[in-house]
Amino acid sequence: MTRSTPPRRRMLALGGALALAGLLTAGPALASFPAKPVTLIVPTAAGGGNDAMARVLAQKMSQLLGQPVVVDNKAGANGAIASEFVARAAPDGYTLLFGYIGTHGMNPALQKLRYDPIAHFEPIGMVCYSPTLMVVNPQVPARTAAEFVQLTKAAPDKYNYASAGSGTAPHFAAEMFKLETGARLAHVPYKGSAPAMTDTIAGQTQLMFPSLFAAYPYVKGGKLHALAVAGAKRSPLLPQVPTLEELGIRGVDVTQWYALFAPAKTPRAVVDRLNQALLAALADKDVARRIEDHGAVVDPSSPDALGQTVRQELAKWRGVVIKAHLSAD
């Protein structure tokens, strides 16, 4: 996933100022948009990391747009139900998708779906990204990734991993980890990150690769133990936790990203208006703090830049599917 290089705070301040100016000076064609509430469809269950981020964003965008932005959770089929719903919605800017790496990268790479992540959507803008953590139930007698791998090899029928469903980041990360280490783990898919995390905390499953955003409160509270970061660098929130690459486990780099999409053929003027509101929301210090306190990094973008990211991500994860012999079963 490519990112811009200038200092993020300066970019956010400038982007927020320009976005706010755009909202105030929009032409007559946009004078009536939005004239009614906007619905933000979230493809996961309430209570998970995606849901929490979407609600923070919706609250601020409601203020900026002058109309309620209502969050509607449509979990199921690993994000496909929500994505299909938005893809078929009227292209008028009133139905949006809080998409993420699963809906627009991994799941379409894994299997044939009834929506195309490129052809059926207009990108609005990136929201943020979050590293992926390797976490275990605290009762698991391993304090390093290597120790955990040895446990699974010694008792291959004893250990399993939870995911938010086939075609999601926790699924891909765990399968990449198995491929690189030879760990013996069974896959237990759930209908979303929240129930998967709940069962890992309870000990029904032993391992998970959630986003740092979703896992951090539980790691901080001692309910989960972080063994490693499945990303390029350590997290400032957990500086003592090494990356898998530092531990000699290469090829498991999963950066989970989150973004807004509209149905295809939404007028560009409406897309730009929504992008301006998004940039202004992300430039708000309280919004940024609430997102970043959980380990995500605010990462605003233009619609075109998000479109390029989606194309790159699809190509990347299709390669992983082939290499790891993954399937939706």
Short summary:
This protein is α/β, with parallel strands linked by helices and 329 residues long. It contains 11 helices and 11 strands.
Describe this structure as you would to a colleague.
The protein is α/β, with parallel strands linked by helices. The chain has 2 domains: 8-130 and 256-324, 3-Layer(aba) Sandwich (D-Maltodextrin-Binding Protein, domain 2), CATH 3.40.190; 133-229, D-Maltodextrin-Binding Protein, domain 2, CATH 3.40.190.10. Helix content is 43%, strand content 17%. The strands form 2 sheets. It has a 6-stranded mixed β-sheet, with helices on both faces. A 5-stranded mixed β-sheet has the order 7-6-8-5-9, sandwiched between helices. Helix 1 packs across helix 9, helix 2 packs across helix 9 and helix 4 runs parallel beside helix 11 (303-324). The longest helix has 22 residues, at 303-324. The model is unreliable at 2-10 and 25-29 (pLDDT under 50).
